[in-house]
Amino acid sequence: MRALAARALIAVVFWPSLFFFWFLGPFVFFLLSTTSGEVCPRLETRAEFLDAANSALPMLVLQNLIYAVPIGCLVLWNRLVPQPARARRIITCIKLFAVAAALGALWEYGSSLVCDGYGQPFFSPAWRMTSYLPIANLAVNIPLYILVFSLGRAFSMREDEPAADAAHADENAP
Q: Is residue 169 situated within a structural domain?
């Protein structure tokens, strides 16, 4: 009974965090973490521009920590109900998450470095290549979302044994 309660508690954290952080969060964090179009015209020197871009780094770290909540829930679920097949899939999720986090951080940081307000490139043209990273990030995130969703569904569903249900029903019979 205690394990069932712990699994339910983890599910209460997992499902809202998956929905709000993974599906709605990218829009909010993208708006907060990159240098906005209003800031770019006010930057005049390379140092000011780099300071503005570097100020996005704490937000990127916070973003990745928040995005890790559903993965942490999967790890906790696996500790409560260990299954080798699910454990391998969770390790795959962790690897995909690490790649997605690195690509996302590089894209968001790189996108904050491409504008200088005057059309003059302060940084190497290699930073302009970061505009292609969302495609790579999407290619990693789609399998990650599907895998995490399916694992969450499998872990949060009650696994009753038919014999235990029959015995429990006999106890409650009048």
A: no
